Amino acid sequence: MDGLNTCIERMVSDEDIRDAIVDELQIYKTAEGRLFSLTLCVKRRNTSQP
């Protein structure tokens, strides 16, 4: 995950957007929200990265 954070920091100059990306990743990892809690999404989360 450290590499991903480094990549985000290099590619996105706006701090607010970086924060939003990190928040979305957390929602994805914990399978929260209407979309990310779907069975298909939970299954794919364990086999492929966003």
Write the layout of secondary structure elements.
Layout: H1 2-11, H2 15-29, H3 33-36, H4 39-45
Structure, briefly:
With 50 residues, the chain is mainly α. It is built from 4 helices and no strands.
What does this structure look like?
The chain has 50 residues and is mainly alpha-helical. It has one domain. It is built from 4 helices and no strands. The chain starts with a helix and ends in a 5-residue tail after the last helix.
Distance between the termini: 12 Å
Helix content: over 70%
Number of DSSP strand runs: 0
| Proportion of residues in extended strands | under 5%
The overall pLDDT average reads 79
- Approximate shape: elongated
Compute the CA-based radius of gyration. Answer: 12 Å
Any low-confidence stretches, pLDDT <50, length ≥5? none
Q: How many domains, in number, for the residues?
A: 1
- Listing every helix as H and every strand as E from the N terminus to the C terminus, the arrangement reads HHHH
What is the count of helical runs?
4
